[in-house]
Amino acid sequence: MLGSKSGEMNWNLTDDQKMVRDMVREFVVAEVAPNAADWDRDKYFPGEVFEELGKLGLFGMVVDEEYGGAGLDRIGYCLVLEELARGDASTCVAISVTNSLFCAPLQRYGTSEQKERFLRPCVNGEWLGAFCLSEPGAGSDAAALSTIARREGDDFLLNGSKAWVTNGAVCGAMLVFAVTDPESSRNRVTAFVIPADHPGVSIAREEDKLGIRSSRTNQVALDDCRIPSEWVLGEEGKGLAIALNSLDGGRAGIAAQAVGIGHAALVFTLDYVREREAFGGPIGRFGGLQGKLATMAAHIRAARLLYLRAAWLRDNGEPDTMAASCAKLFASEMANWVSYQAVQMHGGYGYVTDYPVERLYRDARVTTIYEGTSEIQRLVIARQVTAGLG
Amino acid sequence: MDPRLSETEQAFRDIVRAEVSSIGMTADDIDQGVTTAANAIACLATAEFLGIYTPEAHGGCGGGPVELALVSEEIGATSATVGVVAVGHMVSSFLLDALGSPDQKQNWFPVAVDGTTLFALVLDCGDSLLESPGCGVSGKKEAGGLYLDGKARAVTGLTLSGCLIVPVKVGDALLLAIVEADRDGVTIGVEESQLGLNGAGQASVEFSGVQVPSGSILSGGNVVEALRMADDLFRIGHAGLCVGIGRAALETSIAYLSRADGALCREQSVQWMLADMATETEASRLLTWYAASRTGPDEMREAAAMARLLAADGAVRASRSAVQIFGISGNKRGSGIERLYRDAKAMELHHGAVEVQQLAVAGELLPDLVKDPP
Hints:
The complex is a heterodimer of chains A (390) and B (374). With 390 residues, chain A is an alpha+beta fold. In chain A, 50% of the residues lie in helices and 16% in strands. The longest helix of chain A is centred in the middle third of the chain and has 37 residues, at 239-275. Chain A has helices at residues 15-32, 36-42, 47-55, 74-87, 89-109, 112-123, 239-275, 287-315, 321-346, 357-365, 374-385, and strands spanning 128-132, 148-152, 155-166, 171-179, 189-195, 201-206, 217-228, 232-233, 277-278, 281-282. In chain B, the strands form two sheets. Chain B has a four-stranded mixed beta sheet with strand order 1-4-5-8, covered by helices on one side. Chain B has a four-stranded antiparallel beta sheet with strand order 2-3-7-6, with no helix packed on it. Chain B contains ten helices and eight strands. In chain B, helix 6 (223-259) packs antiparallel against helix 7. In chain B, 59% of the residues are buried. In chain B, a hairpin with a 2-residue loop joins strand 4 and strand 5 (173-180). Chain B has three domains: 7-118, Orthogonal Bundle (Butyryl-Coa Dehydrogenase, subunit A, domain 1), CATH 1.10.540; 137-218, Beta Barrel (Butyryl-CoA Dehydrogenase, subunit A, domain 2); 223-365, Butyryl-CoA Dehydrogenase, subunit A, domain 3, CATH 1.20.140.10. The chains are: A alpha+beta (390), B alpha+beta (374). At the A-B interface, helix 7, helix 8, helix 9 and helix 11 of A face helix 1, helix 6, helix 7, helix 8 and helix 10 of B.
């Protein structure tokens, strides 16, 4: 016999994963979602809510228990991000960056001293982290960085400008990527971990954004910023690999964020098409809208499975580059399409701030841009599937 | 959570992949009417794949929806035409198992498993099972059994099958009758030429006072419940076929690029098409596997319809990109590429069009507003 009724494929969450998801869902419903529109309107970073999120341990979800973290697996972490994004994508991104682009690389590459100094405050909910890779002239082309870190004795002197830094103005410490060997093509960039209030570090600009408006996005200036060599993260010259690995790990999280946005857009729209009446009854009885809603739901479900799979691969030490890129690409494009359709189904009400889908539409937009644009994801995937050709 | 195939499932898939590869050699000939799908179906029977959904006690593999999804993807990657016939046969086996008496199973499973008799479900291939039950075939109970009258158009696998499973309306009741294709009063039309899925034995059938003995009525269970499950299995099987088409489009494109000038696969327009094909095929595959691994009927219903919806769209998009990558040579009849595109389009219509799948999902999302979700 060739096969048997298997039932072995298992998509079930563990009790721990369900517990943390439900805990965050409860908090988001009570404290985040009801305020998201006001925070967005006022571009208000809700520090008091982040204090509570910090107490819940969400700043150090991925940190090992040895350093006081929750030691949450990647699946649980992504589930938390989806829940946060259902309530407020701005809140979600601040937590996402802190965990996947600050804590995770520190956890993986940091010395025990670095972990004690820079991870503990995250775990204790005292500060958020930031990730300073992009520059005004170097985004997707991360190898084209121009921020310089010149060695002077036991110190490094950093000069340059970092752009699109999430949490820049509200973080306690940041990872900074700078050129230490301009002549080298392979060992050009080094990663540093730097306290945000260190002399020479300043916030040069606050970005005024289309979406995720209550999160902080800043330009960070490094002017003769002198730091000790103890703050080098990982090996000198291996910064680009650290950056790319961190971004790989973050992609499933951004996919989860996009799924949260898409899910919220669908739920609000289902409510709306039940309530809104036209031509003698609720508009949800029209087949055209039903078909669109069904397709939205199918895409959201598929995107969720993609991020869960990518997270599972990372949890199990399997190669996840392609899976994470597929998840990020599909989910972020989905969130844009789904929120577009949500606005469309709301008609004029979807175009004004009285209804949340207008915000979701704006919030979705950045998901195809940050932590690797859709175009970069396509290049990554194409390289994987054509490996060995050309 | 472990969203991988188990070792058993992987081994099973590998065996299927190896066995069905020979079908691919004849896929274009089947499409163009040079040969029929009968030989390919015989290959599947020899490899024991026609018994995927037949209990082990009756000589089958005793597989479930996951195995159905896996075997469908593999067949779909070689010939979706063969796939739709095979899925119809496998779902028929499920109905025989769900509703058949011990004697009926004893009689029909052996010939269903070894492929000497192929089963076709008599319903318009544009319909889902429950959308238009009976397909216009009605029955009258008289002395000597049930007498069938009526017709169905565009039934998949009809000209290839020895046995038909016919949904019949008898008054308000719905039942299933097993009817031999050569029984008196059964008139099968000429195989229709189609845009895609050519060679799948699609034809019309007319029943004129066809006598069905009581021993050929499947009435050992809840017919409506069994048809509902069969509908979901159709969706999973057809979603698997669509994933197979998408995979074939991707793999064929990569193989073409490996033979072509290396500069072509460095073209971003080509790279992006490959990336989208890979991503959407993987999304459809995961959704199909997810649907196949659901245990609750309602959960499976929604997920299967979602999978079917997404996979058909993904197959059309992937095969369209494959034709584009091949350029003008992809437009050539017999190249295999344009067949994928035509077959994918036909899959958007086959056994429950895209709109039917959307309604099925919408029925779960808005049960209060969607009337009589299929």
